[in-house]
Amino acid sequence: MDKLPKDPTADHPQDAHQSLDPEDWSAFRQQSHRMLDDMLDFVEHLRERPVWQPIPQTSRAKFQVTLPQQGQSLESAHETFMQDILPYGPGNSHPGFMGWVQGGGTPVGMLADMLAAGLNANVGGRDQMPVEVERQIVRWMRELFAFPETASGVFVTGTSMANLMAVLVARTVALGKSVRQQGLREFAMQLTAYTSVEAHGCVAQAMDLAGFGTSALRRIPSNDLFEMDTQALEAAIEADRAAGFQPFFIAGTAGSVDVGAVDPLNEIADIAARQNCWFHVDGAFGALGMMSPKVAPLLQGIQRADSIAFDFHKWGQVQYDAGFLLVRDAAQHMDAFAAPVAYLRRESRGLAGGSPWPCDFGPDLSRGFRALKTWFTLQVYGTEKLGNIISQTCDLAQYLVQQISQHSSLELVAPVALNVVCFRYLGETKYNSSQRNLDDLNRDIVADLHESGIAVPSTTTVRGQLAIRVAIVNHRTHRGDLDAMLNAVIAVGKTRTDQATE
Ligand SMILES: *Cc1c(COP(=O)(O)O)cnc(C)c1O
Known about the structure:
Helix content is 41%, strand content 12%. It contains 14 helices and eleven strands. Strand 10 (458-462) and strand 11 form a beta hairpin. Helix 4 packs antiparallel against helix 12, helix 5 packs parallel to helix 12 and helix 6 packs across helix 8 (201-209). The chain is globular, with a radius of gyration of 26 Å. The N and C termini lie far apart (82 Å). Pyridoxal-5'-phosphate binds next to helix 6.
């Protein structure tokens, strides 16, 4: 520190230099305290707000103006945020949110995001502590999934990106590094991949984006529990091989998107080993179930994967976004992405040291400090508490199943392995309950619920039927929130069917 020049600006007193820092730091500090307080108020009093509400036209209009030439005060921009943005968010922090599969975030993660923004680290690489923090998360994830010391990991936006990257790593392993120069020309038609019909749409998208095309992805049927039928899997692989294809990739799912099923991962691992295929697990929300003593036994076999994609922003409750890819063999992982570029030369000392860098493990060069909010979340809450939250969401799902069974107007449409409950409102006997009518009715009920602000479930299609889907992910969700949702479904459903039969 002694060697730093005293005040390098002192030699240029008349300089017309401008910067974007505040002229009055003390006023800025006061404003920043108000902003922080407003956000803490929001989180503390979430329950007093509707889960979601429609955006008024006046608010939309404020974001359809021309590019500002002159700035306005921070106070007035914040005022706009409070009036026109904050009340009309997606609702996933709210305890009544149970749609799709989204995490609730935590006040700790929020503060960590602020610290990360203050540091403004570009975590693409270089010898800096934020890279070390990301490496700490990699080491922790090796521990959680019993992966070897040779495993690598990298933060990405989400599991969609992590699944795509896993396909690219498996491709490079199957075809050799030369595919990165030559492209797929001579191979593309021959490589085939496998996943269950229950897999998330981004697995097919990954095959598309990687250049294989979605038709190279074989969709294996699922059993009564919505788990991949492993006999059908092996039969499909053998049929493809006999027909001249080269099977290279199997994606099992730990926590399927529609109903929360877990594929038989141990059996898939055996098949992948026998058939010389890459074994990937899409564990977008389910993989972190390893922290829960209740869920971990259901994930047996995940520790045998070649790669696992998952999101800290779902069951991990970390602020968006925080996707992650863990790969068993770091050398294979780097082979798919690392590229020598002159201006990114690595040195043995100075800031350009510390190779390999996160940018060697994925397509992103500039990257934010996602590791910090994840580190704070794990460090402050610990895996025991986070695991208990995961168990709690599964217990709540069982509570909901029990409540549904007590209403003759409701029907459970899929077994519940984890935290996702799919059910339908059937209506009273008078109601003309054809399949199409029931689909429309349940779709309307869900939209009515959204607009009521009481609860936000979503919909999905289970074996051809539209279902109300409740995915309990948020740590704030309580039995009372499920009661409120169910009562609203029954009340709205009754009103609608009464109207229809009048
Ligand atoms: C959410 C989810 C994805 C997609 O993850 P993103 O983080 O939204 O990209 C993929 N697979 C499953 C099973 C999911 O639940």
